[in-house]
Amino acid sequence: MALVSIPATLHSPAGAELDDTEAERIRHDFPALGQEVNGHPLVYLDSGATSQKPRSVLEAEQDFYETRNAAVHRGAHDLAVRATDAYEDARANVAAFVGAEPEELVWTSNATEALNLVAYALSNASLWAERGRGGSELRRFALGAGDEIVVTELEHHANLIPWQELAFRTGAALRYIPVDDEGRLDLAGAARIVGSRTRVLAFSHASNVLGAVSPVGELVGLARRVGALTVLDACQSAPHMPIDVKALDVDFAAFSGHKMLAPTGVGALYGRAELLDALPPFLVGGSMITRVTMERAEYMPSPQRFEAGTQRVSQTVALSAAVDYLRETGMARIAAREAELGARLAEGIAAIDGVRLLGPAPGEEWYGHRRFGLAAFDVEGVHAHDVGQYLDSLGIAVRVGHHCAQPLHRRLGLTASTRASAYLYTTEGDVDAFLAGLAEVRPYFGATAFGASARSPR
């Protein structure tokens, strides 16, 4: 069996603050962070899009392929048994990480698929109920004309478009909770919008543009008052802060492995067991059935009823290893560290002339929470893509564009922004190098209020 690396974080004192010294040690666990880009040491500030992977995660996936590779839930031979054990052990480990039971965690390819799974399952529930298929418990999921689905104006497209399409398929109306000029949710308006016709309330736990944590308790309370289902996009929270889906009291939650040290191609959907067992499946085929005739099929309970076809086994094993790494480091420590880095980013960005910081101002709390380690901004007179290109010439990786949140950018009067996002391996030196580079952007381009020159940073 392959030797799996021991993370540097295992040597950190329990409960100690995650400081810059430890972050430097952590960096050595991540091979990608040791390279140079354009002649400069890589400064990776795009973890909000995808995180880098530690050796222990890379080796866990390799070890699976070298020692246990086989189809899960399909064979009685030794490799198949060990593969199935690894697959289900990973499910139990990741479920515990977010406070769920194993049967409440469905493997998906990513959070986008997880959110679509819920939306399409609700659509199927409407069709089944209309045609007299399924039990009485299915009726609570059926949507039609007169029903309403509510989202917020700050959603990632993955938590907006599936609900647009569900409304189209079922005849339900889609409504949204607006934000103000700074991006804060209109909670007074939310109390009026979420009403007796609301059947689903979908919202993000943490904004991938504003760096702000949402008021989950207030939103869930509004949904509970009217009996609506709640769907939480946890893509920007599960990797960066402690999360307990039961304590949050949501009905469904989605997150992606690639944002939390794991490979691409794996994500998860949490759902209350009684809800998942009552929902119709999203995809159908092998592995998720109990009995098939030439006329019809009967489906297994969750989670298998939502996992048709050959599974993403090695990726789940690697995600489990990523969860071990995060758990060993300490999610509360990671959250505290990233709040410090977020404050450092916000203060530095806000201090640069001609740069507009999006989301909470430095030192400001929204809904009782500090900014986490993410900051998006607009540079006056310079397009976000040019900002990103200039920073890349210095070896600094950031995200540019609308971050799959066009409606929010439009509400803030922008078409695009630049985003820097930190993680447990980010150092204060990374942030300072980024801020120094950002301060050079407008002078480099000769930016004025009327635009930027066409000069290339290359």
TrEMBL record:
It is an enzyme of class 2 (transferase). NCBIfam families: sufS. The lineage of its organism: Bacteria, Bacillati, Actinomycetota, Actinomycetes, Micrococcales. Its cofactor is pyridoxal 5'-phosphate. It catalyses: (sulfur carrier)-H + L-cysteine = (sulfur carrier)-SH + L-alanine. SUPFAM superfamilies: PLP-dependent transferases. Catalyzes the removal of elemental sulfur and selenium atoms from L-cysteine, L-cystine, L-selenocysteine, and L-selenocystine to produce L-alanine. It comes from Sinomonas terricola. Keywords: Pyridoxal phosphate, Transferase. This is Cysteine desulfurase. Belongs to the class-V pyridoxal-phosphate-dependent aminotransferase family. Csd subfamily. GO terms for molecular function: cysteine desulfurase activity. InterPro entries: Aminotrans_V_dom (IPR000192), Aminotrans_V_PyrdxlP_BS (IPR020578), Cys_dSase_SufS (IPR010970), PyrdxlP-dep_Trfase (IPR015424), PyrdxlP-dep_Trfase_major (IPR015421), PyrdxlP-dep_Trfase_small (IPR015422). It comes from the Bacteria. Residues 43-125, 140-434 form the Aminotransferase class V domain. Its EC number is 2.8.1.7. Pfam families: Aminotran_5.
